[in-house]
Design a protein that fits this description.
It catalyses: L-tyrosyl-[protein] + ATP = O-phospho-L-tyrosyl-[protein] + ADP + H(+). The chain is mostly beta strands. Among the domains are: about 170 residues, Sandwich (Jelly Rolls); about 100 residues, Sandwich (Immunoglobulin-like), CATH 2.60.40. Helices cover about 5% and strands about 40% of the residues. The strands form ten sheets. Strands 1, 3, 4, 7, 10, 12 and 15 form a seven-stranded antiparallel beta sheet that branches. The longest helix has 18 residues. The chain is rod-shaped.
């Protein structure tokens, strides 16, 4: 006949063997541990009912550190109903809970005289509550999760050879709606050593992807759940237009392929998972640009994080000029201005300026002044004078001035202008010629 002391002896020995082999598992980085009996070295003090059922005992792990476990081996008497309940577990944000059980189980055929009363399974239950309910245990309040069977059981011979037959089973419960829960184990007549109980849930840990931060995210309540998460752009970044950053957290705690992205705003460029300011002498005018660029010709900056460069003295940038173009200046005066006069009509021709100011948008304008016989007493010609093809905005290097007064003195100024001429604070540069109308037909030339 099997004594009560005998099962305790083989279980203690088996725990020592099993923990030496299975005790070194690393925690999965995707797991948030809610309960780990193996990590607690003091008494667990779980509820056992009836008192002579499950028994808390001590074992040693591979580092000879004490661990607390539970055993039961009531195989001689039929109709066993031994319950073991954990302490209350607060679930936090979890909806889907994983329960990992590590246990050893004795082969009933290796125990003489227990045919019909020995079992090789036990049952796993849970109860949801919003708070602790005391030390009472009511079976009808528990929901069955599963019947747990061993993949491998051991015999008396395995004990002699110190062979380990550790079983690991994982079950999932959820979705959970209350603040916490209890786990319960029901023995119906087996020889079991419950080596460890680990309860955890999975989450996708915070990451930075495509310059967007995705926070810690608890997985969904179903196996196929995908939790959509909006990313938040890192400092000095902004969302790409119509392409907000999103990722999906899978039920296994893995981030899936990202959608959308953030990009570094103007004045900043990407370096790793951050946006860094452009250095002195560099700029980035748009978030759409990938890298910072060196300041264009005749421009500079002496600060970090610039979206444009300032023009040097005497150089300008037109309002329509993008920050990527060089700063420019007004052109010099037209060259080789000549005229011919036919009574009250004057034709003017000239050559382009020697210096266009670095621009290709040069045009010309003509200023007409009627002068008295006294020096420096001139006034604008007025609206009665005509210009062909135009007075300003001339692309070609000639103009005809008509409807001048006879026997009058005139001065004509021809100025080359470009896109920054109006911004210049320097003196105007132009070519000029003075004529008198009403004289016999003649040609003149001005160097």
């Amino acid at each position: 006949m099997l004594s009560r002391a005998s099962p305790g002896l083989w279980i203690t020995l088996c725990l020592y063997c099993s923990c030496r082999v299975g005790g070194g598992d690393a925690q999965n980085a995707k797991e948030v541990i809610l309960l780990d009996s193996k990590a607690q070295q003091t008494e667990l003090e779980w509820i056992s009912y009836p008192p002579n059922g499950w028994e808390e005992i001590s074992g040693l792990d591979e580092n000879y550190t004490p661990i607390r476990t539970y055993q039961v081996c009531q195989v001689m008497e039929p109709n066993q109903n031994n319950w073991l309940r954990t302490n209350w577990v607060e679930k936090g944000d979890a909806q889907r809970i994983f329960v990992e059980l590590k246990f050893t189980l004795r082969d009933c055929n290796s125990l003489p005289g227990v045919v019909g009363t020995c079992k090789e399974t036990f049952n796993l239950y849970y109860q949801e509550t919003d708070s602790e309910v005391g030390r009472g245990l009511r079976e009808n309040q528990y929901v069955k999760i599963d019947t747990i069977a061993a993949d491998e059981s051991f015999t008396q011979g395995d004990l002699g050879e110190r062979k380990m037959k550790l079983n690991t089973e994982v079950r999932i419960i959820g979705p959970l709606a209350r603040r916490g829960f209890y786990l319960a184990f029901q023995d119906v007549g087996a020889c079991i050593a419950l080596v460890s109980v680990k309860v955890y849930y999975k989450k996708c840990w915070s990451i930075i992807e495509n310059l967007a931060t995705f926070p810690d995210t608890v997985t969904g309540s179903e196996f196929s759940s995908l939790v959509e998460v909006e990313g938040v752009c890192v400092s000095d970044a902004e969302e790409e237009a119509d392409n907000s950053p999103k990722m999906h957290c899978s039920a296994e705690g893995e981030w899936l392929v990202p959608i959308g992205k953030c990009i570094c705003r103007a004045g900043f460029h990407q370096k790793g998972d951050a946006c860094e300011p452009c250095g002195r002498g560099f700029y980035k005018s748009s978030s759409q640009d990938l890298q910072c660029s060196r300041c264009p010709a005749h421009s500079f900056n002496d600060r970090e994080g610039s979206w444009r460069c300032d023009c040097e003295d005497g150089y300008y940038r037109a309002l329509s000029d993008p920050p990527s173009v060089a700063c420019t200046r007004p052109p010099s005066a037209p060259q080789n201005l000549v005229y011919n006069i036919n009574q009250t009509t004057v034709g003017l021709e000239w050559s382009p300026p020697a210096d266009t100011g670095g621009r290709n948008d040069v045009s010309y304008r003509v200023i007409c002044r009627r002068c008295s016989w006294e020096p420096e007493e001139c006034a604008p010609c007025g609206p009665n004078v005509g210009y062909s093809p135009a007075q300003s905005g001339l692309v070609d290097t000639y103009v005809t001035v008509v409807d001048l007064l006879a026997h009058a003195n005139y001065t004509f100024e021809v100025e080359a202008v470009n896109g920054v001429s109006e911004l210049s604070r320097t003196q105007r540069l132009f070519a000029a010629v003075s004529i008198a109308t009403g004289q016999p037909l003649c040609d003149g030339y001005l160097d």
